[in-house]
Amino acid sequence: MNLKKIHHIAVICSNYEVSKDFYVRVLGLTPIREVYREERDSYKLDLEVNGQYQIELFSFPNPPARVNNPEGAGLRHLAFEVDNIEVEVQHLRGVQVEVEDIRIDPWTQKKFTFFKDPDGLPIELYEC
User: Fold this and answer.
1) In the CATH scheme, what is the homologous superfamily, with its name and number, of domain 1-62?
2) Which letter does DSSP use for residue 97 in this model?
3) Domain 76-128 coded CATH 3.10.180.10
4) CA 90, CA 20: separation in Å to the nearest integer?
5) Is residue 19 within 8 Å of residue 66, measured between CB atoms?
6) How far apart are CA 126 and CA 115, in angstroms?
7) What tens digit of pLDDT does each residue of 14-60 get?
8) Contact present, 84 and 92 (Cβ < 8 Å)
9) Is 88:72 a contact under the CB 8 Å cutoff?
């Protein structure tokens, strides 16, 4: 195999408008295109992350809840690299997002923290 990079990450949300607001307004991701797929009664919003990666935000009627705490098998979390974690944590707390205390990775000595999207998907900020 010759994998080059992650092309996109797909996230299914329970309330499309709430999650769209969170990923666009709170996290600052840039919408690329939004389509409604009538045959699935589903929206799909493509989001750009700093011009490099893409997150696909989906709505589906009545998706099952995500297994969380204790962690279930599958995707554990979504992680974003940031330059200054304190600034980003201050922003999130300023828009009423609950953020864990900043920790230090014992192997890399880098700062990181976690918060959750509206459906409880864990999101990590990692300072590089």
Assistant:
1) 2,3-Dihydroxybiphenyl 1,2-Dioxygenase, domain 1 (3.10.180.10)
2) -
3) yes
4) 21
5) no
6) 12
7) 999 999 999 999 999 999 999 999 999 999 999 999 988 799 999 99
8) no
9) no
